From TrEMBL:
Polar residues composition bias: residue spans: 54-71
Composition-biased stretches (Low complexity): 732-756
Designated name of the protein: Ribosome-releasing factor 2, mitochondrial
Binding-site residues for GTP, renumbered to this chain: 77-81, 131-134
Record localization: Mitochondrion
Length: 841
C-alpha cells in the first residue's frame, strides 16, 4: 500500500525485516507484528509538486485504480497474535473501518474469530482480503465458505482469483467492474493489463464465464439486503450484468455500514506477488466510512454517570442528571445556561489510545481527535486524572518517523510528545481559558469518552534487581512499561518482597522482558513464569474483635473493628433486618469478594437517645472508604497459602452501641480505622482456616482448539484425561449453528450471530478441486475435516500447550484461549500443585 501510494520507493518484506510498520528489532527478528504502528498516506497518490491537504484531480488514475481524487488514509497495522489482544483492542477503539486479512491456505483461524467479535462490539465496518493465493494449497472458494460458516456473515465476492492453466495466480477478476486484471509476472504490481468482459471471452473464456456467475451472485445477495439494488435490478430489465458498477458500489457501501454487519465484501490477491492491492485500496475509499459517517462517539459524564452521544453533548441536549438538592426550576435553567456557555469555549475533545516510550523523542501519546482541533501549545485538561498538561509539540507519525504539524483536526490521528501523566484510555479536552488547577467548568471537566477495556493478566514472572542500587531504576522502567501497555500488571509480594510482572501470555511476557532488559537497560533477573492462584475459605468464622491502639506521629490513635467472614456462596451471615433497625452498605470487591458494612438507622425519626451514632469527625464518606481499604488489604493474602482471597463475604457490624463506643473514639483517624479493619479481617480469616482448611482456586481458560478430524480423538482425550479439562462442544468448521464468538471472550459478543447456510454462498471453484458437485460441496462444507473443540482447561495445563498440540496434529492444530474465571481445585490437582510449591518432584 505504501509503495503504490508513493510513500516508499521499494516494497518491504516481512521475511527480510524491511517492512515500514514492523520496525521494532523484536518484530523483525520474529517476523510478526508486536506493536501497532500508525502511518498516513494518500490514495491515489497526489501529482508531484502538489501541496498536501489540497483537493487535486489526477488527469489519469494510476494503474489498477478508478479514482482520480486523492484521499487521506490513516492506516494502523495491528498484531495478529493472541498474546497481543490488547494492542488490537485499543486500535479498534479509534478506527473507522478495518480490513481483515485472511490466509488463503489456512482460511478463517481461531484468532480471526476473536478479533472479529471484538470489532463487532465496536461496530467497525469491515472488508475481507484473502491473501497468499499464490501459495500451494491456496483455496479461495473454501475460504469464502469458511467466512460464512465461522464469522456468521454473508461474503459478497467482489474479486475472484485469475488462475492460469497450471494453477498459478496471474491476476484477479473484478466482479464489480466486470473486467480481468492481469499482473506482469515478477513485476512490482504496477504493470496491469486490463481486459473487458468481451475481451475475456476470447482471451480466457473460463474466467469470463465465472465473472458472469460471480456478478449474478453478487447482485442477488445485495438485493436481499438493500432495497435500492432491487430497483436498479428492475431498471436494468433484470439483467445482472447491465447494472452500473457505481450502483453496485453504492449498494455494497450501504450493506457494509449496516450494524450489525451481515454482508462483508471479499477481495482476493497475493501481496507477496503484488497482486490485488490497488483494488483493495479503492475498496477502502469506496466502502469504508470517513469519520463523519461513523456513529456518534459514546460519552459519559463522570459525576452523574449520564451517557449519550458526543454530538448531543456538544449541542447541549445531553445534560448531567441534577443532584438531589438542586431540583428547583430556576437552578436548572441557571445550570443549563452555564453549561451552554461552557460548551462554546470547548475547542477539542480527543482520546489517548496509546502511549509509547521512544528512545529519541521521549514519551509519545497517540490521540484520536473526535471534535474540534488540538493546536500547538494548547493546554489539555485530562478529565480522567483531573490534571492539565500542555501540548508543546504535535507530530504526525509515519511508523517510526515523525513530522511536526501545527494542529490535529477531528477524525485525524496524531501524537503529542512530552505528556507526563496521560495514559491509555484517558480523555483530553482543549478549552479556551482553562484553569490549570481546577480545569474547565462543569460539565466539560467530567466528560469521558468510552474507555478501552483492559483484559486481566494471567501469567507472571518475578523481577529481581541485581542490587539495591538498581531498585529505583527498575521501578521507573516498570512504570514506563505499564504506561505503554496497561495489559501488563506489576504487584509486590509483601512477604517475600518480590516484584511480579503479569501479562497475557508467554510471548507477551517474553517481549516485555526483552524490552525491560535490552531497551530500558534494567539490570535485573527474571524468574520463571508462574500461575496466579487464588485462595478461598470453606467455613464461616465467628464475630471477632480487634483494637488498633498506638502512637502515630506523636499522637495517640485508637480504633477498633469487628468482622466475620464466610464463603460467598453461603449467602448473608444473618437475615437482612428492616430499614428501621439498620442499613447495610454493600461493596462488590475484586475476585468475587463482597463487603457488607452494617450501620445504624439513618432516619432521625427512628433514633432515640440511646441509639448508636458516629463521631462527628468521621462522616460516612470518610469512614466507608477507610474500612474498604483495610478489608482489601487483608484480602490480598490468604491465611494458609498467602494467595489473594476469592469468593469471600466479609461483614463489619457497626450497628451495636457497645461496638461503636469501644471502636470509635475522638482519637480515631481514618488511617487507624483502616488498620483496625485489616487486623480484624485477617483474624477472622485465620479463625476460618483453623475451623476448616482453605482451598486453592486456579485460573481456567476457555480454549477453542481447531484440529484435523484424524487427530480429534487424541486431542479430546488429552484435554479431558491428561489436563483435567472439560470439553464443552465439538463443532465442524462448516457448522451453520450459532457458535458465538463469546466462547473466546465473554465480554466482546454483543449480538447473536446470524445463521448462514453455506450451501447458498457463492464461491468460485479452486484449482485442482474436484469437479463433481457432491464432492465439491463436501470440500466447501467440511474443509479438510477440520473440527473446533471448545473446552475449559486450567491455565497451568495450557502453558506450552502449542508445542504439544502440534505434535498431536502433525503441525496442523491451532488454538486460542481467553480467561474465563477461577475454579476450585480438586484434591488430586491440589496435592500436585502444593507439592510443586514445596519443591517436591
Amino acid at each position: 500500500m505504501l509503495y503504490y501510494s508513493g510513500y516508499t520507493r521499494r516494497i518491504g518484506d516481512v521475511d527480510e525485516g524491511s517492512t515500514v510498520t514492523d520496525f521494532l528489532p523484536a518484530e523483525r527478528a520474529r517476523g510478526i507484528t508486536i506493536q501497532s504502528a500508525a502511518i498516513s498516506f494518500s490514495w491515489p497518490p497526489p501529482p508531484p509538486g502538489s501541496s498536501p491537504g489540497t483537493d487535486t484531480v489526477l488527469s489519469t488514475p494510476p494503474s489498477g485504480s478508478h479514482h482520480t481524487t486523492p484521499h487521506n488514509i490513516n492506516l494502523i497495522d495491528t498484531p495478529g497474535h493472541a498474546d497481543f489482544t490488547f494492542e488490537v483492542l485499543r486500535s479498534l477503539r479509534v478506527l473507522d473501518g478495518a480490513i481483515c486479512i485472511l490466509d488463503g491456505v489456512a482460511g478463517v483461524e481461531a484468532q480471526t474469530e476473536k478479533v472479529w467479535a471484538q470489532a463487532s462490539s465496536y461496530q467497525i465496518p469491515r472488508v475481507i482480503f484473502v491473501n497468499k493465493l499464490d501459495r500451494d494449497g491456496a483455496a479461495f472458494g473454501s475460504t469464502v465458505k469458511e467466512v460464512g460458516a465461522r464469522l456468521h456473515v454473508w461474503p459478497a465476492v467482489c474479486a475472484i482469483p485469475w488462475w492460469s492453466a497450471e494453477g498459478r495466480l496471474i491476476g484477479i477478476g473484478d466482479v464489480v467492474g466486470l473486467q480481468g486484471m492481469k499482473y506482469a509476472k515478477g513485476g512490482d504490481g504496477k504493470q496491469i493489463e486490463v481486459f473487458s468482459l468481451q475481451d475475456l471471452d476470447s482471451h480466457d473464456a473460463k474466467l469470463a464465464e465465472e465473472l458472469k456467475k460471480a456478478r449474478t451472485a453478487l447482485v442477488e445477495l445485495l438485493s436481499e439486503h438493500d432495497d435500492e439494488m432491487v430497483e436498479k435490478y428492475l431498471e436494468a430489465d433484470e439483467d445482472h450484468l447491465a447494472i452500473l458498477p457505481s450502483d453496485i458500489t453504492a449498494s455494497l457501501r450501504c450493506c457494509t455500514l449496516q450494524h450489525p454487519q451481515i454482508v462483508v465484501p471479499v477481495f482476493a490477491g497475493a501481496s507477496f506477488r503484488n497482486v490485488g492491492v490497488q483494488p483493495l485500496l479503492d475498496a477502502v475509499i469506496d466502502l469504508l466510512p470517513p469519520p463523519h459517517d461513523r456513529p456518534d462517539p459514546e460519552v459519559s459524564l463522570g459525576s452523574s454517570g449520564t451517557k449519550g452521544g458526543l454530538s448531543a453533548f456538544l449541542s447541549g441536549k445531553l445534560v448531567a442528571a441534577p443532584a438531589p438538592d438542586q431540583t428547583k426550576t430556576g437552578s436548572k435553567a441557571l445550570r443549563k445556561d452555564k453549561a451552554s456557555l461552557a460548551l462554546q469555549n470547548l475547542e477539542a475533545c480527543a482520546l489517548a489510545f496509546k502511549v509509547v516510550a521512544d528512545a529519541r523523542r521521549g514519551v509519545l501519546v497517540y490521540v484520536r481527535v473526535y471534535s474540534g482541533a488540538i493546536g500547538r501549545n494548547a493546554p489539555l485538561w485530562n478529565t480522567s486524572l483531573q490534571t492539565t498538561e500542555r501540548a508543546q509539540r504535535l507530530l504526525k507519525m509515519y511508523a517510526n518517523d515523525a513530522v511536526d504539524i501545527e494542529s490535529i483536526f477531528a477524525g485525524q490521528i496524531g501524537v503529542i510528545p512530552g505528556l507526563k501523566f496521560a495514559r491509555t484510555g484517558d480523555t483530553l479536552v482543549s478549552y479556551t481559558g482553562v484553569n490549570p488547577k481546577h480545569g474547565p467548568p462543569a460539565p466539560i471537566n467530567d466528560l469521558l469518552l468510552r474507555p478501552i477495556e483492559v483484559p486481566p493478566p494471567v501469567f507472571f514472572v518475578s523481577v529481581e534487581p541485581n542490587s539495591l542500587a538498581e531498585e529505583k531504576h527498575i521501578k521507573e522502567s516498570l512504570d514506563l512499561l505499564l504506561r505503554e501497555d496497561p495489559s501488563l500488571h506489576v504487584s509486590v509480594d509483601e512477604e517475600s518482597g518480590q516484584t511480579h510482572l503479569a501479562g497475557m501470555g508467554e510471548l507477551h511476557l517474553e517481549i516485555a522482558r526483552d524490552r525491560l532488559i535490552t531497551d530500558l537497560k534494567a539490570k535485573a533477573r527474571i524468574g520463571r513464569i508462574e500461575i496466579g492462584y487464588r485462595e478461598a475459605i470453606t467455613a464461616a468464622s465467628a464475630l471477632v474483635h480487634e483494637i488498633f491502639d498506638r502512637e502515630v506521629g506523636g499522637k495517640s490513635s485508637r480504633a477498633g473493628c469487628s468482622a466475620s467472614v464466610a464463603p460467598a456462596s453461603d449467602g448473608p451471615l444473618s437475615p437482612p433486618l428492616t430499614s428501621d433497625q439498620q442499613q447495610t452498605q454493600t461493596f462488590h470487591l475484586p475476585d468475587n469478594n463482597r463487603l457488607d458494612i452494617i450501620l445504624p438507622p439513618s432516619s432521625p425519626a427512628n433514633l432515640d437517645p440511646s441509639s448508636p451514632t458516629f463521631p462527628s469527625h468521621l462522616p460516612l464518606p470518610t469512614l466507608l472508604p477507610a474500612l474498604q481499604t483495610g478489608v482489601q488489604a487483608a484480602l490480598a493474602r490468604g491465611p494458609t497459602h498467602a494467595y489473594p482471597l476469592h469468593s469471600t463475604q466479609i461483614t463489619l457490624p457497626f450497628n451495636n452501641p457497645k461496638i461503636l463506643t469501644d471502636h470509635l473514639t475522638p482519637t480515631t483517624t481514618p488511617a487507624a480505622l483502616t488498620s483496625a479493619a485489616r487486623l480484624a479481617v485477617q483474624k477472622a480469616l485465620r479463625a476460618s482456616a483453623e475451623a476448616s482448611e482453605t482451598v486453592l482456586m486456579e485460573p481456567v481458560m476457555r480454549a477453542a482448539i481447531t484440529v484435523n478430524e484424524e487427530a480429534l480423538g487424541a486431542v479430546v482425550h488429552d484435554i479431558s484425561a491428561a489436563r483435567g479439562g472439560s470439553v464443552i462442544s465439538l463443532d465442524s468448521s462448516n457448522s451453520t449453528t450459532t457458535t458465538t464468538s463469546s466462547t473466546l471472550s465473554p465480554n466482546t459478543a454483543t449480538t447473536t450471530p446470524t445463521n448462514i447456510n453455506t450451501s447458498k454462498i457463492y464461491a468460485p471453484p479452486d484449482p485442482f478441486a474436484s469437479a463433481s458437485p457432491s464432492s465439491d460441496a463436501l470440500a466447501h462444507s467440511n474443509i479438510g475435516g477440520a473440527k473446533t473443540v471448545i473446552a475449559r482447561v486450567p491455565l497451568k495445563e495450557m502453558v506450552g500447550y502449542l508445542r504439544h498440540l502440534r505434535a498431536l496434529t502433525a503441525g496442523r492444530g491451532t488454538f486460542t484461549m481467553g480467561f474465563e474465571g477461577f475454579e476450585r481445585m480438586g484434591g488430586r490437582r491440589l496435592r500436585v500443585v502444593l507439592g510443586e510449591m514445596r519443591g517436591e518432584v
